[in-house]
């Protein structure tokens, strides 16, 4: 059954080619992880490190004992946690209301929301708005501009569409108004979907670069992505400006350690992301 | 009115979200008027002088305009030619694997870069390719060759961008195709085998036709985005040596508008890009829908 010689050759070549592609995908990450754990002395001594003889946490210790790096991690964590919470509340409440057929005018509102997906006035008008609101240099600027998008509202509305209106009628008989129905009954019922959206929001806040760079000038407000970018292009290492008296490790191993730390949270949620979004992307494709 | 009163809590629930869209998505649209003014932060939107289409005229007659246009088109055409077919090929290859385990491991690896930020992608690119620190150049030196300035050579800049996009998104791009392939009736393959069709013939006559409509629709939608170049990707890779090939509409608006303070002129530039983008997207959607219907019948 398992076929001819040709078939087996095809299988082998195909499997090998894919392994090669996977190798190319994983290699940069492997390399960065390995070098970040290499002892500075070994890195300086050798021309090329592909596997360390001596493991060391020196680069991580140095990074985490600086002032700037832990602060940037804190900022990113703040954005991810607070931003995600705000995004979920505002997106889900709007999406739920729009999914109820008894809401008059919902077609119009949906159309207006759809239009914001197709057309954006550009960077400058947004920047001027944030400035007029006196939000420049505030972390809230970064949260507010990326709070939600038309896509999220429409995707989440699609999910709430599957919750029958008879459910809220029953709740209304029990004395719930729409707000308490939503928070006490609908949201708990929708937890798996809400969690998936939350994960996606959290990743996008963690990965925020452009808005943070645009709206936050003070280095002490920088999230990890902005700090990382500055560390990379700045050869002198002044972006860290560590007050520790320690001899700094080579800037390369420091950069690699910083990249690894910025990837770790993504890796932690990756199994969930893959599960949900492989599914989500397919649902989207069937609908679109 | 009565319906609104009866459902007032529902409207209350929607209110924060509606306000958000009004303030943060629609209010800036009003800022478009500043592209017809000589806006200055001191006089504001109300007190600034009206200049009609001056900024647009200046933008179109500026040699920068053609540069931005060329770079945007070049980057997107390279993407369409080299990036676009890859997820299709990859999903065909993945589909041929016999071992589910192996397939799943490969997918886990290939999807991962999609979730990494552009800063991380840029960092990895830098640590791989920079002249002083990159491992590729270290290898070249170890093999007795000259190091190559991958990041500062304007001649290969677009290629580097395409490479980055491929590394980041080609794996993730297979999801849609794999989903379409999963819908193919396995009996078709059995029948083809009995008729003596080989692997490649099966791929050509069964699998590819099954995903053809997905390919066509994605291709059209991708054409609709022809004005869009990933801002963060280009902005991060930008440096003085490649500025001529790296400047695209968004980076230009940022540099001229935010960094040089020419708010009105750069708003006009941004508006041009948004308007052309809008027309392209709407046209592409129309077209895709037409193809989608054909796919159904």
From TrEMBL, chain A:
Q: Which PROSITE patterns match?
A: ABC_TM1
Q: Does this entry carry the keyword Transcription regulation?
A: no
Checking Pfam families in the record gives: BPD_transp_1
A GO biological process of this protein is:
transmembrane transport
Q: Which part of the chain is the ABC transmembrane type-1 domain?
A: 73-273
State if Ion transport is listed as a keyword: no
Where is this protein found? Cell membrane
Question: Which InterPro entries does the entry link to?
Answer: MetI-like, MetI-like_sf
Q: Which Gene3D superfamilies match?
A: MetI-like
Gene Ontology CC: plasma membrane
Q: Which family is annotated?
A: Belongs to the binding-protein-dependent transport system permease family.
Q: Which PANTHER family match?
A: ABC TRANSPORTER PERMEASE PROTEIN MG189-RELATED-RELATED, POLYGALACTURONAN_RHAMNOGALACTURONAN TRANSPORT SYSTEM PERMEASE PROTEIN YTCP
Question: What is the official name of this protein in its record?
Answer: Carbohydrate ABC transporter permease
Organism name: Paenibacillus sabuli
């Amino acid at each position: 059954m398992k076929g001819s010689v040709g078939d087996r050759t095809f299988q082998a070549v195909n499997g090998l080619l894919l392994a090669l592609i996977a190798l190319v995908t994983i290699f940069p990450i492997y390399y960065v992880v390995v070098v970040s754990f290499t002892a500075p002395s070994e890195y300086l001594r050798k021309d090329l490190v592909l596997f360390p003889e001596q493991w060391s946490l020196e680069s991580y210790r140095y990074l985490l004992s600086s002032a700037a790096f832990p602060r940037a991690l804190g900022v990113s964590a703040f954005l991810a946690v607070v931003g995600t919470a705000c995004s979920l509340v505002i997106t889900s409440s709007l999406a739920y209301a729009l999914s109820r057929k008894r809401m008059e005018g919902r077609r119009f509102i949906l159309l207006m929301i759809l239009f914001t997906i197709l057309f954006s006035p550009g960077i400058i008008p947004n920047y001027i708005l944030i400035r007029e609101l006196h939000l420049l240099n505030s972390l809230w600027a970064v949260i507010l501009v990326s709070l939600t998008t038309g896509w999220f509202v429409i995707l989440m509305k699609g999910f709430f569409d599957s919750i029958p209106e008879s459910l809220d009628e029953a709740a209304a008989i029990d004395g719930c108004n729409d707000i308490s129905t939503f928070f006490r009954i609908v949201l708990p019922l929708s937890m798996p979907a809400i969690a998936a959206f939350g994960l996606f929001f959290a990743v996008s806040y963690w990965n925020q670069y452009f808005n943070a760079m645009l709206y936050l000038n003070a280095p002490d407000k920088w999230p990890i992505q902005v700090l990382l970018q500055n560390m990379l292009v700045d050869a002198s290492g002044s972006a860290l400006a560590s007050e520790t008296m320690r001899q700094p490790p080579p800037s390369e191993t420091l950069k690699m350690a910083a990249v690894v730390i910025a990837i770790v949270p993504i890796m932690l949620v990756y199994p969930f992301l893959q599960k949900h979004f492989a599914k989500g992307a397919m649902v989207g494709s069937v609908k679109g | 009115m009565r319906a609104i009163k009866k459902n007032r809590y529902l409207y209350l629930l929607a209110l924060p979200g509606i306000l958000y869209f009004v303030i943060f998505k629609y209010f800036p649209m009003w800022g478009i008027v500043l592209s017809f003014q000589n806006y200055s932060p001191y006089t504001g939107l109300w007190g600034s002088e009206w200049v009609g289409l001056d900024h647009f005229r200046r933008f179109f007659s500026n040699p920068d305009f053609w540069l931005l246009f060329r770079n945007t088109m070049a980057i997107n055409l390279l993407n369409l030619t080299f990036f676009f077919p890859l997820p299709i090929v990859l999903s065909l290859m993945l589909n041929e694997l016999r071992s589910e385990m192996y397939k799943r491991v490969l997918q886990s690896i290939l999807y991962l870069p999609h979730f990494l930020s552009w800063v991380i992608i840029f960092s990895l690119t830098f640590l791989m390719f920079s002249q002083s620190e990159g491992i590729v150049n270290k290898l070249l030196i170890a093999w007795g060759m000259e190091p190559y300035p991958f990041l500062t050579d304007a001649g290969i800049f677009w290629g580097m961008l395409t490479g980055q996009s491929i590394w980041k998104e080609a794996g993730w791009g297979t999801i849609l195709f794999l989903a379409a392939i999963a819908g193919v009736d396995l009996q078709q393959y059995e029948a083809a085998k009995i008729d003596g069709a080989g692997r490649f013939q099966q791929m050509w006559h069964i699998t590819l036709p099954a995903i053809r409509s997905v390919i066509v629709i994605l291709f059209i939608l991708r054409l609709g985005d022809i004005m869009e170049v990933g801002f963060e990707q280009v902005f991060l890779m930008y440096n003085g040596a490649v500025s001529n090939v790296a400047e695209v509409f968004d980076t230009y608006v940022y540099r001229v508008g935010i960094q040089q303070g020419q708010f009105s002129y750069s708003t006009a530039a941004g508006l041009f890009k948004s308007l052309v983008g809008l027309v392209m997207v709407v046209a592409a959607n129309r077209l895709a829908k037409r193809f989608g219907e054909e796919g159904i019948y």
